[in-house]
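Sequence, please.
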């Protein structure tokens, strides 16, 4: 679920920044592109972190199943 929300949020913010480039003209081109790249890199980081947390949960469940207290 977090990945879906992440992709949707990144897409919406990127779209808003593209609209701001179109409305403001070339003066906003470099900062908006830098923000778009930053948002997309942040989205990839959140995607990777979510994958790590999900795999950690699976490993913990397997370990608890194999090592009952």
């Amino acid at each position: 679920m977090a990945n879906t929300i992440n992709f949707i949020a990144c897409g919406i913010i990127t779209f808003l920044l593209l609209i701001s480039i179109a409305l403001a003209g070339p003066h906003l081109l470099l900062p908006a592109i830098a923000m778009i790249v930053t948002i997309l890199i942040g989205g990839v980081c959140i995607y990777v972190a979510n994958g790590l947390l999900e795999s950690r949960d699976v490993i913990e469940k397997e370990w608890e199943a194999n090592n009952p207290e």
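The CA atoms of residues 5 and 17 lie 18 Å apart.
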